[in-house]
Amino acid sequence: MITKAPVWDKEALKRLAQRELGDFKLVIVSNRQPYIHELIEGKLSYAVPSGGLTTALDPLMQECGGTWIAYGGGEGDWAAVDEKNRIMVPPDDPAYTLRLVWLTEEQEQGYYYGFSNEGLWPLCHNAYTEPVFDTKAWETYKDVNQDFANQVLDEIDGRPAAVFTQDYHLALLPRLIRNAEPDIITGQFWHIPWPSPEIFRICPWQEELLDGMLGNDLMGFHIGDHCNNFLDTVFRTLKSRVDHEYSRINYKDELTVVRPFPISVDFERINQDAEGQIVDEEMDRLTDELNLGGKLVGLGIDRIDYTKGIPHRFRAMGRFLEKFPEYIGKVVLVQAGVISRIQVDAYQQLSAQIEELLEEINGKFGRDGWQPIIYMPTDLPDLTLMALRRMARFCVVSSLHDGMNLVAKEYVASRFDEDGVLILSPFTGAALELTDALIVNPYAIEQFADAIHQAVEMPREERRSRMIQMREIVRENNIYKWAALMVEDLMQGARRSRRPVRTR
Q1: Cα–Cα distance between 318 and 327 in angstroms, integer?
Q2: Spatial distance between the Cα atoms of 420 and 438, rounded to a whole number of angstroms
Q3: Same domain, 216 and 289
Q4: Residue 228's pLDDT is what?
Q5: Which residues sit opposite 99 in a β-bridge?
Q6: Which residues, other chains included, contact 109 with Cβ-Cβ below 8 Å and sequence gap of 6+?
Q7: How many domains does the chain have?
Q8: What distance in Å separates the CA atoms of residue 329 and residue 65, rounded to the nearest whole number?
């Protein structure tokens, strides 16, 4: 009998946070808010945005308390907050404070759509989409980072605090708060890849960005390669001492430790939710609605983004049907995912490309009420997504470049039946952990088509063996372990490397 390794859970995370944080207030700062409030017929409702950020950090905040500072983008957010722009969340079981920052339309355009997502996003993803670096957008990015810094400082109000900044939207924030309050402990997690120095030097303001990030005691990335790229970038760009052996940077007589922290999901919650009768009922509904009875289902779940390789998987599906015509009418690829960032030209071009491929492939192979690809570019409920994961013989993650990709781990966690095949791009952080997936280069369409064939032909016992191995990896390396290691390294590292920190 195999003895399973002990795993981190909410209670273990809570005990560690209490021990490490002590009297320090935990403040998380991000662009995206964990709960969005809407006004529907004069009544407030809320939704939880999709994506890895909320999945990863909401459990941490629920266990640790503190304050989450984020941009208020919901139409009902104004009505939900108090006079200090605060509200207790989650709405159904309040555990921590959400403080919202308001941006003008011009600020959102320059800071978010402009510099962050037309500049840094394609730059860091090595996507074959030219980054756009606009001076006005950069100035707006700096202004918004300062606005966020002011909110953080006001929230802390001179008390001992640990500030945990998230992602690429707020790269300047750590330096701003460190300069204002040197005693604040600062950490940042970069949720997307970090490119090579040769790629990053394209950015006209690389020195300012790096200076901002080196205001952190701890700088976290998904995998070791991203850490090494960051160390190399600092070494080539700034006057600093970079210790590659111990992954440390000494800059302005301040030490920043750089560490990999592979982000994950709440395995036990997903596994338990997947077993619910309500999921079975939703599977029956989808089978009828989408005419999936007797079909083998493939699944893609992505935000519609040019980094996710959606056109590549569509082409692979078309090539699969060309090579193996016996599966025409028998296999369906369901592609779910919400369209985003439509204000950015590259995303408009992607949507047009997807629609063109859909028309081509479905027009060529579709017959008798059957289409090989069902496209659902809407914000689907969690229940529907769970049902689709349960129904899918195979799940396709074909990212061209990705920090981690939690879709892969969510699929594995949902398969309590120990069935299903994961087709996974090697250009994801997840591929380093989920080695029992079918690893396939999304650019290699022939190999991709063959991987789909292998997935639909794979014997039940092999599917089970591969899935068991992957489920154990995701179970052990869950979101609570990620959060625990981040908090532990942040607090202990800061205490080792800095002068005694003021407490009250």
Answers
A1: 11
A2: 11
A3: no
A4: 97
A5: 69, 86
A6: 137, 140, 343
A7: 2
A8: 52
pLDDT digits (tens, 9 = 90+) for 317-375: 999 999 999 999 999 999 998 777 777 788 888 889 999 999 999 999 998 889 999 99
Beta-strand runs (E) in 15-95: 25-29, 36-40, 43-47, 67-71, 86-89
- Name the token pair of 453: 């064939």
Three-state SS string across 409-452, please? HHHHHHCCCCCCEEEECCCCHHHHCCCCCEECCCCCHHHHHHHH
What backbone torsions phi and psi does residue 314 show, to the nearest 5 degrees?
-65, -45
Is 318 in the same domain as 347?
Answer: yes
Tokens of 37: 């409030």
In a domain, 4, yes or no: no
CA distance 157 to 160: 9
Same-domain pairing of 441 and 465: yes
Domain of residue 154 covers 10-264+480-497
> pLDDT exceeding 70 applies to what percent of the chain?
96
Mean pLDDT over 445-454 rounds to 98
Question: Is position 502 within any domain?
Answer: no
Which helix (H) or strand (E) segment holds residue 289: the answer is helix 277-289
In 108-196 the beta strands, taken as DSSP E runs, fall at 161-166, 185-189
Encode pLDDT of 216-260 as tens digits: 999 999 999 999 999 999 999 999 999 999 999 999 999 999 999
In this structure, what DSSP letter does residue 380 have? -
Based on the fold, state whether residues 227 and 327 are members of the same structural domain: no
Answer yes or no: is 484 within a domain.
Answer: yes
Cβ contact 207:236 at 8 Å:
no
Encode pLDDT of 123-139 as tens digits: 999 877 889 999 999 99
The pTM for the full model equals 0.92
CATH number, domain at 283?
Answer: 3.40.50.2000
CA neighbor of 408 nearest in space, from 273, 315, 270: 270
> Is residue 98 located within the same domain as residue 235?
yes
- Identify whether residues 404 and 286 lie together within a single domain: yes
Contacts of 168 (CB under 8 A, 6+ apart): 116, 120, 121, 124, 190, 191, 192
pLDDT for 99 beyond 80: yes
Residues 359 and 455 in one domain: yes
Extended beta strands in 290-363, E state: 296-301, 331-336
Q: Determine contact, residues 369/325, Cβ cutoff 8 Å.
A: no
**CB neighbours of 51 closer than 8 A, spacing ≥ 6?**
32, 303
Query: How many C-beta atoms surround the C-beta of residue 383 within 10 A?
Result: 15
Q: What is the pLDDT of residues 190-226, one digit of tens each?
A: 999 999 999 999 999 999 999 999 999 999 999 999 9
Supply angle C-alpha 241, 243, 246, rounded to 5: 150
